[in-house]
Amino acid sequence: MNLIRQREGQSLVEIALCLPILLVLLLGIVELAILFSVYVGMTGSAREGARAGAIYQYSGSTPSLNDQTACTTFAATLDAERSAEVNQAITSTLNPIIDPARLQVDIAYLESPCIQDAFNPSRAAQIINVTLSYTHTIFFGLFGRNDIALSAQSSMRIEPGGGK
Q1: pLDDT band for position 43 (cuts 50, 70, 90)
Q2: Rounded to two decimals, what is the model's pTM?
Q3: Long-range contacts at 41-44 (CB < 8 A, ≥ 24 apart)
């Protein structure tokens, strides 16, 4: 009888020793899942932004582009309109966990639109690169770090052609 009484608290001690380890493991898995969800969402938004920039077509009238200055000015207008389309596509497809105010969007092209005697202000057949950068704040903070920098990039060829 005395032997049975001494083992009554054994289960409680084992749970007290294992529960913190299991809890940290569970919270780590949840945090990793949230981090993966944010990354996959950023990748999808970058792809949608690149696609919006690739299919954007200027629908207004094109001025005569007989010199470098006119081409550069018109290309800047087109780039601003294309950037607005890209940003709108990214915003509409962004993961709800991501704070849009902390998201940095970089839009880059591989070539200049107005190379000597090759005026291409619409950037047809060029490559558009959309890069999203975000600093994700850890929810549980189990491992000491509070923020993790995430980045996603997508590139697509800009489609030549008619109206928007």
Answers
A1: very high
A2: 0.81
A3: 41/94, 41/95, 41/97, 41/98, 42/95, 42/98, 42/132, 42/134, 42/150, 42/151, 42/152, 43/152, 43/154, 44/93
